[in-house]
Each structure stands twice: as C-alpha cells, then as structure tokens.
Write a structure and sequence with these properties.
homodimer; 154 residues; alpha+beta; 8-stranded antiparallel beta sheet; 3 helices; globular
C-alpha cells in the first residue's frame, strides 16, 4: 500500500481530533502490523470500497485515552465504556474516514464508506481480512496514545 | 428494515453453511437487538454500501460452534481461536455477504462490499452504528447456535 492511501488518513486523524476535541496529536511512525493484538479497549471499525480495491480501517483507544477525549469533547466525566463512549468512537470513526475520503477523492480515488461498527472488550483482537498489509499508525497526544490501522487489498 | 433486505441474508447463511460445511442450519425468528452483548466469541464483520443506504453485518460464533465448523470444513481439530479459525470466519463472512449481494441485486439493490474484519475476545461487544434497527437472527444447527446481525441505515 502506498503513501497516497495512507497520508489522507494521517491528515484526517489530526484534523478531526484537533477540530472536535481540541487535541493536538503527533503521528508516530507507521509500521507493518503482523500480530492481531488490539492496542486498545474500544475500536471503531469501518469498511471501505472503491471501484478497484476494498479494505477497512480501525481506530483503537485504550480506555483512559477515550475517557479523556470524551471529557474534552462533551465535558462529561466517564469511567466506564458506555453508550456515550461508543457513540463518540463511532462518530470519530465516521468523521476520520469522511475526511480521508475527501482527500482521497482529490487524488482520484472514489471511496464508498460503510457505517461504522464499534467493538469493545478487554483483550479483544481486530483482524483485517483484506489481502494487503496492515499498516499501524500510532498517534501521541496529551490524552495518551491511540492507534489507527488501515488495510486495503493490493 | 424490510424483509426484502433481511431474507437474502437468511438464505445466504443457509446456502453457505450447507454447501461449505455440510451443515444444515435452521433459521430462528429474527428479532430486534437492543443490547450490545455479543452472543459469541468470534465475530466476522463486514461493511456494505449502496447508492442510497449503508450498513454492516456481523456473524458471531461461540467458540465450540466455530471449532465444530472448522472440523467439518477442514477436518482439523482446533481447540483455540487461531489463524485457522479467524481465516475461516473471514471467508464465511465474505461468502455469506457475497451470496446475499447476488440475491439483493436480483431485487435491484446494488451492494458494494468492504473486506471483512474478524474480532475475537471473550465478552467482546459489537455495536453497529448505522441508524437503523439491528436485526438479530439466530441459526440452529448440529454444531450449535450462532447469530447473524444486520443493521442498515433506514
């Protein structure tokens, strides 16, 4: 998978978190993810299709990181993964892929977005079944580190 | 959501399991799912898009049920959720949505399929974020009971 596809996701994550949560995030170095262990406790997952390739993105937050983001965005103190948390993770997932979709369209990729699914549970694993490599992107912030995974066919 | 959309998934699950795993399945009564608790330990999730609506499907297997299905399909005895199990759940997810896609096309719905994502973990929860109702369909079989959830906007 080339930088053409990855970079719009990197930009979109930073844009969405800075606009919606007033949270500046610093992208770490993308790497290939060869294991299936989730780096967090709450994951937003979304499927994407284009005319030629399809794939999926997951954004995964440790509990303490997502609780801090909920507090920044909604001014609510949450201490467990409830509907407020999963709704917000679903919304962030939508906005990030929506932002990336816009940037990808400028490069000639026309992306169809499915609706997000949010998965919770300590020690859950998320395994992308697209045939391409799974790219893991860490993002560091005042709220802590969270992760985005993108996997496309080809 | 109407029967036009649900029935192709019911048919496709039965077709795929009977063809690929020689497993006859009996669909139970579909119901609205209002909680988020996953009925199983391994879930295949796939996003779908049409020109007008988008959504997601999850197929969820308790461990003992998916182990039995692996044994029927591959002749392998597995006792833990490993790559063999998640690959097979990813494939089944693909085939079921692929089959439903064919049936839906006959009714004039043109479905774009994303690639599947497989989620594992005891007590994981899968929360569909499409705006429509989440339809839960139980399937009974000699291998045990497993569940399909379909949720579309509108």
């Amino acid at each position: 998978m080339n930088a053409d596809i990855i970079n719009p996701f990197l930009s979109s994550v930073s844009n969405v978190l800075s606009t919606m949560a007033m949270l500046e995030v610093t992208p770490g170095k993308p790497s290939l993810k060869n294991d299936t262990v989730s780096r967090g406790d709450v994951s937003g997952i979304i499927g994407m299709t284009t005319a030629t390739i399809s794939g999926s993105m997951a954004i995964t937050f440790p509990e303490n990181v997502v609780f801090d983001i909920v507090n920044r965005m909604l001014g609510e103190k949450v201490t467990k993964v409830d509907d407020t948390v999963t709704d917000l993770v679903g919304e962030l997932t939508n906005m990030i892929v929506g932002g990336a979709k816009g940037l990808l369209e400028e490069k000639g990729y026309d992306i169809g977005m499915a609706t997000p699914v949010v998965v919770t549970g300590k020690d859950h694993e998320v395994i992308h079944k697209a045939k391409g490599q799974n790219i893991l992107m860490p993002f560091n912030s005042e709220a802590g580190t969270f992760y985005v995974e993108v996997c496309f066919d080809a």
